[in-house]
Amino acid sequence: MMQKRSKFEQGLLTVLTVVVVILFMIPVFWLITTSFKFGREAFSIPPKWLFFDFTLRNYEDVLATSKIGLYLTNSLIVSLGATVLSLVLGVPAGYAIARSGSRVLNMSAYFFLLLLMVPPVAMLIPFYLIMRDLHLLGSYASLIILDTVFDAAFVVWMMRSYFADVPREIEEAALVDGASRFAAFWRVALPLSIPGIVASALYVIIFSWNDFLFALMLTSPETKTIPLGILSSFSAVEINWGKMAVMCIFAIVPALFISLFLNRYFIQGATMGATKG
Amino acid sequence: MHHNLWKFLNLIIVGVVLVGLIGCTAPVAPAATAPETAPPAVAAGLDACQGQSLVLASMTDQYVAAFRVLVPKFEEASGAKVTLDELGYVDLYQKLIADFVGHTGNYDLMTVDIVWSGEFGQNLYTLPLDDFMARDKAELQLDDILPVAWTLGEWQGTHVAYPLAGYANVLNYRKDLLEQAGIQPPTTQEELTAAAQALTDADAGVYGIALLGAKGPAVAQDYMAWVQQYGSRLLDDEGNPTLNTPENVEILQHFGDLFSYAPAGATDYWWDQRETAFRSGNVAMMEGWSIARAGYENPDISSVVGNVDLTVAPVKEGMEPQFGFGGWGIGINADSTPEQQECAWQFIKWVTSPEIQKEWLRNDGAPIRRSTMTDPEIVAEYPWMPILLESFEKGDGDYRPRIPQYSIIQDALGTHVNAFLVGQETAEQALEAAQKQVEDNWQ
Amino acid sequence: MRRALRGEGAYLLMLLPLLVFVAAIAIYPLLFSFRISLFKYRLTDPNQVQTFVGLDNYLRAFQDPIVLTSIQVTLIYVAGTVLLEMSLGLALALLLASEARLMRGARSLLLLPMALPPLVVGLVWKSLYNADFGVIPYYLKALGIDVGRGPLAELNWAMLAVILIDVWQWTPLLMIIFLAGLKGLPLEPYEAAFADGATRWQRFVHITLPLLKPTLLVALLLRTMQSFKVFDVIYATTGGGPGSATTVLNFHIYTVGMTFFDMGYAAALANVLLVIIAILSALYIIILERQQL
Questions:
Q1: d(CA C56, CA C265)
Q2: Is C133 in Cβ contact with B415 (below 8 Å)?
Q3: pTM, to two decimals
Q4: Does the N-terminal peptide bond of residue A46 adopt cis geometry, omega within 30 degrees of 0?
Q5: Which chains does C contact via 3+ CB–CB distances below 8 A?
Q6: What tens digit of pLDDT does each residue of B256-284 get?
Q7: Are residues C184 and A195, on separate chains, in Cβ contact within 8 Å?
Q8: Any domain includes B394
Q9: Hey, is the C-beta of C71 within 8 angstroms of any chain A C-beta?
């Protein structure tokens, strides 16, 4: 049913893809090589991409002197917690806003947007004081709650646009059969929007995974997340690049697994996508 | 009142929502107000720590390695539990401020940058240590600590932090390159400029000197070092800012001239890039903190092993030599409980005692005591120790003004000195604008 | 009851949990930030004195030369990042839409930049950009291009250099959003167009783009708002320099708030930024609403 692409076109697209990937991967590759280098070679000119004095010293250092395992565990707990919570709260809300005819409900979407506009610096101290008064400083809950406030606002807006793409007629058929709105949402709209949910989930995981400012203010030594761990490779006179590169790699690997895992659900959602362009 | 009402209403709502959500989490209850602190009159020993637990916030400078080794030893000797939290410069500062402002008392002990002394002192963040010091005078050997080291945490006559790690601004140079060119290590700024010019061979990729030019703290602090080395000041006798004196403008010109003999990217250098430039062998000279010295002999990170020496930082010709001094003190949170404060003081006493100082130094700590710096074993291991001692003896801990407004001065210079270096402003315009910016924000 | 759940009541029930949650957590900080902008309040003051000064902080903002240049810088930064990321993101989504193994692998790899904290990304790129031992200037020099003081230190290049960092990190995110949008599109219009013998380009312009518009607009909205609030990357690379070439407004707010602790003024600046974003968002939303009618 689709126009077949010629061999030449196929080849061109493949080459283009490879070039794009290589360009995007240069900094990542630089981090990987740096993690296996001695400090003196990290900045050698001409750059050494493949042939250098290979060492595992940086990995040994990180494993011996930093609590990398703890940081990763904490990051996973916070990211997954915030993701689950903001999807549970945000997806139905996005659906409600997309489907409701009520002006008031629709306006509430802009309240969430307002939140995303305020520069966090202005709210950092009040958030800190709230968490102090709730006796939540240093707990996972404080970070999960705060991340969710912002993440869920994103989820609402993204899901609103994806649900808008799902044809109403399919749901109405279900409603005619006597299903409740919830059932229509749960059995019809939700399965059709899986790619959107996956994209939203990815968005949320990424933002919680990378969050620096809130994590900085709200964590204790026991609940530190990976971005804070990475930044401890600074001293007054230098950055320990080897150590930092190793921690970056530890930060990337779980994220890679998560993205590979979520990638599978893209296909399940709607398989006909391939070459609509 | 209004403020409290909102807070109250909000807390009720939050509370209702969250009780169901989170179940029960009960971290340590925060200290609501700073307790009245008067240390017991009787001297206390390490046994005051029995059963106490402390959290120590340490900057991830070299000396953090020494803390990693010494903290467990202290725990063993005292029975206290000490958690070491290692933080980078920015994170350390912001976590401390949040802890102080929110009176949460999360950190009992913290490393305090010399330039924070005024701010922490004026705002009563850290506990003045004078009572403790008077009480335990007999065991402290205060005279052994170099006079300049007391600037690490002194504010208007009280000690809001105790000396922990002293850094001297020194001149590192490449013995081999200077010898080849037949140049003696410079002792004055005039000689330094001449040497930098002579040693620069851009075609060969070798430059005379590495400098900090990046916008922000980096360029501000390097310029401040040059102001000091030319015998000028940023504040007048009453403590008012005088950034734009004709003298300072001239110094800025000299500072700018030096960039002609620095690598092309120097206006973009932070400390890290400056170190990289020197260690990779591209530059012949570099002024910087003495703590980096040992790293040049480490073949893992340095390509100039065996070719580096250091000397005191050059000053203007005819000027009575004075050398930039910086580093870290260690302070006690004013919000910690009196028992924790007592134990924290025991930790400070212990880690700065002459017995422990040698171990502190051997694990990458930085010195504060004359006895350590003149110890024959130490001098044998660190041959540059006498130069450090000389720098400390004529040290100037105030070249970066240790006043509550320091960050304002640093920010203004950080912006405008950089603007001058990249050709956006002339030297006069730059310092004029910096002076105005400081006056506008002065509180 | 059952009737109610089939009407608007059901929608309200689905929205309510989030609304209550967000309101409970965020209302105090929002009001605090608004209220404090009318006060002179130094965060580090041991007595926490707050003096009412009316609109003084706002008046000060409009006389502050840094604010005026930084608004300009911010607009350039936002326009540059959003335009580049939107168009590149869409191109990548179309390129990698197929489920062939190569494309799926490429998609996963492209997500890696996002897994690094922006602060670290900034530091890594600062090193890659370094004129003396950075990888990028090394190859540029090899091509005979004069890099001067390095991309981040030249007045004319610094902005482009930081924009490219943002593009590197966040284009893949937009790719994912668009990809999800593409996968949700209905098939029928394409079949009809195919029957009519439309070219691939015609199908893209006349079917894909219009159908994808809601997704495009939401991505534009969210990305614009984030771009306005950029801080970490600037902080770690140029510190707003050289001179004030990359001093975006949010960076200035950070300096005022977390370096000078002048919270009243910082809050006022934050509200100025908020108003700018709100006006722009309102424009987007008007367009968005039209689309969905």
A1: 9
A2: no
A3: 0.88
A4: yes
A5: A, B
A6: 999 999 999 999 999 989 999 999 999 99
A7: yes
A8: no
A9: no
Sequential DSSP letters for B364-389: T----BHHHHT-HHHHHH-TTHHHHH
Instruction: For residue C112, tell me if it sits in a domain.
Output: yes
How far away is chain B from the Cα of C33, in angstroms, using its nearest Cα? 12
Query: Do B11 and A133 meet the contact criterion of CB atoms below 8 Å apart?
Result: yes
Question: In the numeric block, which tokens belong to residue C70?
Answer: 């930084």
Specify the DSSP class assigned to residue C208: I
Query: Mind listing the pLDDT tens digit for each residue in A67-86?
Result: 899 999 999 999 999 999 99
- State phi, psi for B207 to the nearest 5 degrees: -125, 155
For residue C40, the surrounding DSSP H or E stretch is strand C39-41
Is B27 within the bounds of a domain? no
Residue B223's pLDDT is 97
Q: Is the peptide bond before C242 cis (omega within 30 degrees of 0)?
A: yes
Residue C131 near chain B (CB below 8 Å) = yes
CATH code for the domain in which residue B422 is found: 3.40.190.10
A66-272 CATH, one of 3.30.110.70, 3.90.180.10, 1.10.3720.10, 2.40.50.140: 1.10.3720.10
Interface test with B, best of C36, C40, C44 (most B CBs within 10 A): C44
Q: What's the burial of B2, exposed, middle or buried (CB within 10 Å: 0-12/13-18/19+)? A: exposed
Q: Is the pLDDT of residue A236 over 80?
A: no
What 8-state DSSP symbol labels residue B47? G
Most distant CA pair in chain A, distance: 72
Asked if B289 reaches chain A (Cβ–Cβ under 8 Å), the answer is yes
Nearest residue, CB atoms, C215 vs list A28, A96, A161: A161
For the complex shown, is ipTM > 0.90?
no
Q: Residue C151 sits in which domain range?
A: 64-291
Query: Could you give the CA distance from residue C267 to residue C57 in angstroms, rounded to a whole number?
Result: 9
Asked if C242 has any chain B CB less than 8 Å from its own CB, the reply is yes
